[in-house]
Amino acid sequence: MPSTAPDDARRILDLVASGRARSRSQLADQLGVAASTVGLRVQALLDSGMLTEAGEGTSRGGRRPRILRVADDGGIVLTADLGGGHARIGRHGLSGAIQLVETIPIDLTEGPEATLAAIADAMELLVTGSPVRAIGIGLPGPVHVETGSVDQPSRMPGWSGFRVGEHLSARFGGTQVAVDNDANLAALGEHGAQFGMTGHSITVKAGTAIGSGIVVDGVVHRGASGAAGDITHTRIDGSGDIPCSCGNTGCLETVASGASLVRQMRERGVEGITGVDQVLALARDADPVATTLVRTAGTHLGQALSGVVNFFNPHAVFLTGSMSASEPFLAAVRSRVYEACHPLATQRLRIEAAGTGPDAIILGAARLALGGLEVPGP
Known about the structure:
CATH topology of the largest domain: Nucleotidyltransferase, domain 5
Mean pLDDT: 89
Number of strands: 16
CATH class of the largest domain: Alpha Beta
Radius of gyration: 22 Å
Largest sheet: 5 strands, mixed
CATH architecture of the largest domain: 2-Layer Sandwich
Helix content: 25-40%
Shape: globular
CATH superfamily of the largest domain: ATPase, nucleotide binding domain
Distance between the termini: 7 Å
Oligomer: single chain
Order of helices and strands: EHHHEEEEEHEEEHEHEEEHHHHEHHEHE
């Protein structure tokens, strides 16, 4: 039998859950497709138990429309955001909205099988009586999206080529598993919360490391080899010859990441600094060394972003990760971008901290997983 187009299924669930469309005719208007096509797709979702009908609406001439809503027991989506030392595990409704989040300790250096066993155990504790419809996973390294595997990671020994999606799918009885880089998922999660399925944005995850993702009309733009939007290894003027994990020198990550701030504080004789949060705390307390380093990091990031903004002309640049909470960092990014870009590229540009905060990645993972949802057709 044919299947309902996955992206259409996600968009219908999105529209119904948010209240932007409550009937088939409203869905047809929002999606820009024929009423007959919407009818078939809605029926497939009704048959699968994901949607339900909840009475009749007001007639505007003709038959009264049947009101649609997402079924309370229609299913759940599970997500995971894997970091170096911990993972955030989420349970979501079919709209992608978060129902529950748990944090567990993990160690990526233990390898994929041990790590994913811990992830799966934690996920199973979040499963309710509703069926698990899809799973989304965010990884802190390059991902081959088609195979769901890690592609040449620099901080994940033993993970290269491991098919994360297939491994977890087998654990959950063949459930569809979507896997992507955490920066792409942060971009998807924040964009969805801000713009839905329209607009263009760049989201930069600035924490211990730096990652970024591009979203065009609600879809992650990955490029020919999955590297689109990665500004991490942009060469920065005046950055010196500090070696980077990619093999080059003077990359953005060597002068603007949280890890680089920790290194630079130590080089200046500040003792006891083990993480970027300590540097940011010192900057909040107006420590001159920390404040200068944080501002300089923001300027470097703004330099890397200015070329992207001129070329891509997005509606917004969102910053997430621990460094996005620093006002000196954010102000320096804004200042450099507005200074370096053409006025047409910045006249309507928003540059701000992500509103979804630490939930951006699991929200993006849920949206990606729902985008691959397979719904049996009529």
